[in-house]
Design a protein that fits this description.
Layout lengths: L13 H5 L2 H10 L2 E3 L6 E3 L2 H9 L4 E2 L25 H6 L8 H6 L1 H12 L7 E3 H6 L1 H11 L3 H15 L10 H23 L5 H7 L1 E4 L4 E4 L2 H14 L2 H16 L1 H9 L4 H11 L5 E6 L3 E3 L2 E3 L4 E5 H4 L34 H18 L4 E6 L11 E5 L2
Parallel strand pairs: 2-10
Antiparallel strand pairs: 1-2, 3-7, 4-12, 5-6, 7-10, 8-9, 11-12
């Protein structure tokens, strides 16, 4: 038998990004605590290890941010996803109630109108790029409406976010185009904030500007600082669209590749919420997050030191055969418990219920009008942390 190739993992490898699951399986089986060859970070890949780390924020700190190629300083760049309690809880609490299942249910009419506007113009017998036709514009319009972004500016903002997340093969450092895109995003969102400061509305930016919370550091109620407002709104504009775009495209491809499961959905649309959960597990949009250790940790016979970066592979945890039976198949009837496709613990995705509902509505429309759709060529662009398609050829039938 030929010797097994050396186990190599990098989140900035295009080959791994395109098909990470064989490498993830080897990591789980051969090196559950994997050391980057250049000593830059550790990697945890098993479900139990990832969930334990996500829960233990006191050991696995978020203060340096979710991505080692662009470290943060207690939320200066990434807002609440780069904070630990108690500051995290106070800032996140400003909008926590806005994204509950009840709050999302109240948006039902507006969400349906957005989905119908983009998918209603599609015609059977045609072939479209699903990303351009609806997977990009539906989430972009939903978060654009919530933030009050003018329609004419939304596509440009989406393009900037895609450029901000795009990485070069094998390079850890952010490329110049990503840095420039980040500057343009902050400038644009900053101008929107100033407009709302002068003329408040009922959008999320206005709500964030007007919100107050008790800050024990000054023992008084206070509003967010201008920088906190900017970073929070930057985060909302990205997280509200990027993950959902990837969920929709990944789910469409996965269901096409499992026609028996798709036919069950077509026959019984009540299965669609379950299908969204399985799409999130099967091909997770957010593949990894980073944490830094506040103390020495010994795991699986390996010692990680305080101050070390640790990558938590959500995409691998969701395919762990120790947690899921036959994990490499898309199966609707899986028993549900703890799943880490939206993270877990204090940093679980604030907008998860909104993302789920958008995807459900898109899949409902496809199942009703184009139950025999087929997928042709599809492409990904190497990005940081999130993984999905930038082009999906879809024939509607």
């Amino acid at each position: 038998m030929p010797a097994t190739s050396e186990l190599m993992y990098s989140p900035f490898s295009k080959a791994v990004f395109d098909d990470p699951y064989p490498v993830y399986r080897r990591l789980r089986n051969e090196a559950p605590v994997y050391r980057d060859p250049e000593q830059r970070w550790w990697v945890l890949s098993r479900f139990e290890d990832v969930t334990s780390a996500l829960r233990d924020w006191e050991t696995y700190s978020s203060k340096l941010g979710p991505a080692p190629e662009n470290p943060d300083d207690d939320g200066r760049k990434y807002s609440v996803i780069s904070m630990d309690p108690p500051r995290h809880d106070r800032i996140r609490g400003v909008l926590k109630g806005f994204f509950t299942p009840r709050a999302v249910a109240a948006m039902e009419g507006a969400l349906q109108a957005t989905v119908d506007r983009h998918l209603g113009r599609l015609e059977a017998g045609t072939t479209v790029d699903a990303m351009e036709a609806f997977a990009f514009p539906v989430p972009t319009d939903v978060i654009g409406d919530l933030l009050g972004v003018p329609h004419a500016d939304r596509e440009q903002l989406r393009v900037w976010w895609e450029a901000f997340l795009t990485r070069n093969e094998g390079e850890v450092a952010m490329p110049p185009a990503a840095i420039e895109a980040n500057r343009k995003i902050s400038t644009y969102i900053g101008e929107l904030i100033e407009q709302r400061r002068a003329t408040p509305g009922d959008d999320l930016i206005s709500i964030v500007l007007q919100a107050t919370f008790h800050d024990p550091e000054v023992n008084a109620d206070r509003a967010l600082t201008p920088h906190e407002v900017l970073m929070f709104c930057n985060l909302l504009s990205a997280a509200g669209s990027e993950t959902t775009q990837k969920l929709i495209s990944n789910g469409l491809v996965a269901m096409h590749d499992h026609p028996d499961q798709w036919q069950r959905i077509v026959n019984d649309p009540s299965l669609i919420p379950t299908a969204v959960n399985e799409a999130l597990r099967y091909d997770t949009p957010s593949h990894w997050v980073a944490r830094t250790l506040t103390r020495r940790v010994r795991l699986h016979g390996v010692t990680m030191e305080a101050g070390d970066w640790v990558l938590l592979l959500l995409g691998s945890a969701n395919r762990d055969e120790r947690r899921y039976e036959d994990p490499d198949r898309f199966v609707l009837d899986r028993p549900r418990g703890t799943d880490v496709y939206f993270g877990w613990g204090i940093h679980i995705c604030l907008g998860q219920w909104l993302a789920r509902r958008e995807a459900q509505m898109v899949f409902e429309h496809i199942a009703r009008r184009f139950p025999r759709y087929t997928i042709g060529s599809h492409e990904r662009t190497l990005t940081a942390t999130v993984r999905g398609y930038t082009r999906v050829e879809m024939t509607l039938q």
